[in-house]
């Protein structure tokens, strides 16, 4: 690999020329037919296309049934037909009135009638339940298998599960205008002259829906979650922010909260003559004790099923049959013994 690597150095003028070419490629794409426009043709193209893109931009996303945009489509996002989103028709002088809006592939010989996202697992696409990959299926819906030995495939259906928890077939492609996207409460970002930007509205659009904290993803975390104390069991990135948080509390004279985690900070230090193994064992036992005490303190939710079991003293104790929430955020599922099954 080392003999194939090239290290190019440019002065200021040549670097500016490279930047100008990259911007040209983002604006024009493949509309020049493989031959670069001359300056006059480039200016004519921009005068015709840029106002149209700023006015009639279409936002494309792969959305689950609850409205979360699990995948924001960008120029390089692959389609079911194995071509990129930028190789489909995305510029319209007038936005079509029919819904859903079709974005046909513009590659010669491709029969794809509208862009359709296909998830990737690593560097390869997912497979249908007929065991064949997407490229061995038809480019037209319902995307039947083209293998002659595969007669039972009525359409592409996959066992793939998205990061949001919904299966592949519980998603749909949404192509919408700016007004329609704003009506859903999803961000539209800034106007851009680049070709085939799809649903990209910022850096967070590159993340999957269940990781995005904007309205198009899972949304912002609750205030209770943001205000919880940072302990030694949290990620090192969070623990590194503790000194600055304490400094802010001292600056605003919030002495009550300043000493809330004093016991935790003292416990996180090794005691004199305490070995490393004893230290980690003590911290582990403290964490188990905290989790158990927190679980015992949780009361059943209103309407939760409970089961009664006799105790040696003759009284009865209740066991919550539904899930309980542990302090760490994990769900502890109750056994639910004695609860009749439906």
From TrEMBL:
<dbReference type="InterPro" id="IPR026755">
    <property type="entry name" value="Fam221a/b"/>
</dbReference>
<feature type="region of interest" description="Disordered">
    <location>
        <begin position="288"/>
        <end position="342"/>
    </location>
</feature>
<dbReference type="Pfam" id="PF14753">
    <property type="entry name" value="FAM221"/>
</dbReference>
<protein>
    <recommendedName>
        <fullName>Protein FAM221A</fullName>
    </recommendedName>
</protein>
<comment type="similarity">
    <text>Belongs to the FAM221 family.</text>
</comment>
């Amino acid at each position: 690999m080392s003999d194939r690597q090239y290290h190019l150095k440019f002065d200021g003028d040549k670097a500016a020329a490279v930047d100008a070419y990259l911007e040209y490629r983002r604006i024009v794409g493949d509309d020049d037919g493989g031959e670069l426009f001359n300056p006059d043709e480039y200016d004519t193209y921009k005068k015709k296309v840029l106002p149209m893109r700023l006015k009639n931009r279409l936002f494309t996303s792969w959305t689950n049934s609850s409205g979360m945009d699990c995948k924001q489509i960008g120029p390089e996002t692959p389609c079911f037909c194995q071509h990129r989103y930028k190789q489909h028709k995305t510029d319209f002088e007038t936005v079509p009135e029919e819904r859903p809006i079709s974005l046909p592939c513009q590659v010669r010989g491709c029969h794809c009638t509208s862009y359709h996202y296909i998830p990737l697992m690593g560097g390869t696409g997912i497979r249908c339940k007929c065991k064949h990959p997407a490229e061995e299926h038809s480019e037209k819906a319902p995307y039947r298998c083209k293998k002659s030995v595969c007669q039972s495939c009525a359409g592409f259906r996959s066992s793939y599960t998205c990061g949001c928890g919904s299966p592949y077939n519980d998603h749909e492609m949404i192509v919408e205008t700016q007004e329609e996207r704003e009506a859903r409460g999803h961000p539209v970002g800034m106007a851009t002259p680049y070709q085939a930007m799809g649903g990209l509205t910022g850096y967070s659009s590159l993340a999957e829906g269940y990781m995005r904290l904007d309205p198009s993803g899972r949304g912002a975390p609750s205030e209770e979650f943001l205000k919880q104390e940072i302990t030694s069991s949290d990620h090192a990135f969070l623990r590194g922010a503790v000194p600055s948080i304490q400094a802010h509390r001292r600056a605003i004279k919030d002495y009550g909260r300043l000493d809330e985690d004093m016991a935790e900070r003292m416990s996180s230090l090794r005691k004199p003559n305490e070995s490393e193994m004893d230290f980690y064992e003590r911290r582990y036992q403290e964490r188990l004790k905290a989790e158990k005490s927190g679980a015992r303190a949780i009361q059943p939710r209103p309407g939760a099923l409970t089961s009664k079991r006799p105790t040696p003293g003759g009284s009865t104790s209740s066991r919550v049959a539904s899930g309980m929430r542990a302090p760490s955020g994990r769900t502890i599922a109750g056994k639910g013994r004695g609860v009749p099954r439906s």
